[in-house]
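FAQ: What does the model actually see?

It sees only this:
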Amino acid sequence: MTKSVSPVLMAVIGAPNGVRGALRVKTYTGDPLALGDYGTLYDEGGNPFDITEIRPSKNVVIVSFEQVKDRRAAEALNGVELFVDRSQLPDDELDEDEFFVADLVGLAAVDEAGEAIGKVIAVPNYGAGDLLEIAPVTPGGGFARKRAFLVAFSRTTVPAIDFDAGTLTLVPPGEIEARGDEADDE
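And it is asked to produce this:
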């Protein structure tokens, strides 16, 4: 397969499990076992990974891939990210206020008055919840990737998302704290 036009990260391969090539895999699906429902997964280089067996195990799933025959092959895959093309994901199964995290990347971040703050360049999660990585707007109208900053992704910091307009409303943390102080004064 060639590289996906619109890849969506579904999982990250971890350490091997046993001697027959099974792997621990951290999934980013609502139901970890649903990883097997998306068909062939691909790494960043377009190499296919077909799941032959999947079972739960604590915080991960244990997965056997058709392409991985032994522990040595499994050891070489630690840290490999697995993707599907965005077109493989079922939009019709999402509730009104649900979306894929990958759909946030590329949205313009604006303040409550509609003024540009920056652009979402990533949505990392280091274990304590999703964050938005925002590249701020430069005076020339571009985006300063090197000056990107992180904000917690919550209803407080992002009260509105408009996918049709390609924007999300961002309330900077300093404004949230100021609002909290005002509420305490009343």
